[in-house]
């Protein structure tokens, strides 16, 4: 059971393959969203992953300011379906926020949240900054966390 944070260059070929496989399984297959999963932002991002017995069970892509938004961002947040309900999403978010605030020194984090997860992200201090809109036929809302 290990949490790891890596730059794109630190990922092995097998790790990158496993990450892309899990992201595609959740966002393209499970959520029925045919879209360009490999979007060119991975090389500029940090990759936070949790593994058990070599398998990735949780993952988030941490984007420095200027990659997706003027603010830092957290994206591609996934917990493998078989590992849901164990608190991994909360720990994943806690670690993601801590890295961006403490290691990158950023005070604002912007996310594009699926609307049904608004309260989950709100529990970490994220507040809506947009109305609800459709992205790939899924209701989303932009949210921002500001550190005092």
Topology:
Layout: E1 2-7, H1 13-30, E2 46-52, E3 55-63, E4 72-79, H2 88-103, E5 108-114, H3 118-122, E6 127-128, E7 133-135, E8 138-146
Parallel strand pairs: 4-5
Antiparallel strand pairs: 1-2, 2-3, 3-4, 5-8, 6-8, 7-8
Domain N-acetyltransferase: 6-148
GO molecular function: acyltransferase activity
Keywords: Acyltransferase, Transferase
Task: Write a concise synopsis of the structure shown.
With 148 residues, this protein is α+β, with helices and mostly antiparallel strands. It contains three helices and eight strands. β7 (133-135) and β8 form a beta hairpin.
Model description:
With 148 residues, this protein is α+β, with helices and mostly antiparallel strands. The protein has a single domain (2-107), classed as Gcn5-related N-acetyltransferase (GNAT) (Aminopeptidase), CATH 3.40.630. The protein has helices spanning 13-30, 88-103, 118-122; strands at residues 2-7, 46-52, 55-63, 72-79, 108-114, 127-128, 133-135, 138-146. Strands 1, 2, 3, 4, 5, 6, 7 and 8 form an 8-stranded mixed sheet that branches. The longest helix is centred in the N-terminal third of the chain and has 18 residues, at 13-30. The model has no long low-confidence stretch (mean pLDDT 94). Keywords: Acyltransferase, Transferase. This is GNAT family N-acetyltransferase. It is an enzyme of class 2 (transferase).
Features:
about 150 residues; Aminopeptidase; about 35% strand; GNAT_dom; acyltransferase activity; EC 2.3.1.-; transferase
């Amino acid at each position: 059971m290990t949490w790891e944070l890596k730059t794109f260059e630190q990922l092995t070929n097998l790790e990158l393959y496993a990450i892309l496989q899990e992201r595609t399984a959740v966002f393209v297959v499970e959520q029925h969203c045919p879209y360009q999963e490999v979007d060119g932002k991975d090389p500029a991002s940090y990759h936070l992953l949790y593994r058990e017995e070599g398998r990735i069970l949780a993952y988030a892509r941490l984007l420095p300011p200027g990659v997706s938004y003027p603010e830092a961002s957290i994206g591609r947040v996934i917990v493998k379906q078989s590992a849901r309900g164990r608190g991994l999403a909360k720990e994943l978010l806690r670690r993601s926020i801590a890295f961006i605030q403490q290691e990158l020194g950023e005070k604002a984090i912007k996310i594009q949240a699926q609307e049904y997860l608004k309260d989950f992200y709100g529990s970490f201090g994220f507040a809506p900054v947009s109305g609800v809109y459709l992205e790939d036929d899924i209701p989303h809302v932009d949210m921002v966390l500001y550190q005092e």
